[in-house]
Design a protein that fits this description.
Shape: globular
Number of strands: 12
Strand content: 35-45%
Structural class: mainly beta
Distance between the termini: 43 Å
Largest sheet: 7 strands, antiparallel
Number of domains: 1
Radius of gyration: 20 Å
Number of helices: 2
CATH architecture: Sandwich
CATH topology: Jelly Rolls
């Protein structure tokens, strides 16, 4: 896990390259590198072919390489691996892949506002979602989008707005990664599927506490 400051006012192309040094309200959290450090298990309705494999296949795009170099500066043990999802689609419109961490993976204090995930697809007819759990807010499913593309793509999604009645709710209970879900449609042919995942990042907003009376001027001045 790692935190880097995330700038709001720059183009998407530079989002993971230029970082603000004094942004205390937001941070970018690398929740998962998919390098094999965190064990996951595979849940699927059909097919005996259900493999999660650590492979040395990573995106070759300029954006990912620059992002990777930034993280390498911050990780002493950073390794160039991805997670491969290897399975067979038998009944497409009924198939649902669930990738679940075997250990608890929590987000830091704050509210998740955006998700980013590098995904390799071969034009599959399906959609990928991330599910988080919070004791107060329950299960939250965030759809990152369709998998109808070839090669690597950084998928991204905005997290629905959370109403936080009290800040201590966030301090006592953190958001937890529950699972990564892939659902296929009727258009998907019966075939072997290879998907790769890398760098799951979450943009975290840290609420600013407001104290009663803070808006009242007390007349005190420093000399």
């Amino acid at each position: 896990m790692i935190f880097v400051n995330f700038p709001q006012n720059i183009s998407k192309r530079d989002n993971f390259i230029r970082f603000l040094e004094n942004n205390h309200t937001q941070s970018l959290h690398l929740l998962e590198k998919f390098d094999g450090e965190t064990p996951y298990f595979f849940k699927k309705s059909d097919s005996h072919l259900q493999d999660l494999i650590k492979v040395s296949k990573i995106p070759s795009t300029e954006e990912f390489q620059k992002e990777r170099e930034e993280f390498k500066k911050l990780f002493g043990n950073y390794e160039d691996f991805s997670m491969e999802i290897h399975t067979y689609i038998e009944i497409p419109d009924r198939e649902k892949i669930r990738i679940i961490p075997k250990i608890k993976k929590y987000l830091p204090y704050g509210i998740p506002t955006h998700l980013f995930l590098w995904v390799y697809s071969e034009n599959y007819s399906g959609k990928l979602s991330i599910i988080f759990f919070h004791p107060t807010f329950g299960r939250k499913k965030i759809e990152l989008g369709e998998l109808e593309f070839f090669g690597w793509k950084k998928m991204e999604a905005k997290v629905p707005v959370f109403h936080v009645p009290r800040l201590n709710i966030l301090r006592k209970n953190l958001f937890e990664l529950e699972e990564i879900t892939i659902e296929f449609s009727k258009k998907q042919p019966k075939k072997v599927v290879h998907l790769y995942l890398n760098h799951l990042l979450v943009l975290i907003e840290k609420p600013t506490p407001i104290y009663p009376g803070i808006e009242i001027e007390d007349g005190w001045k420093l000399k």
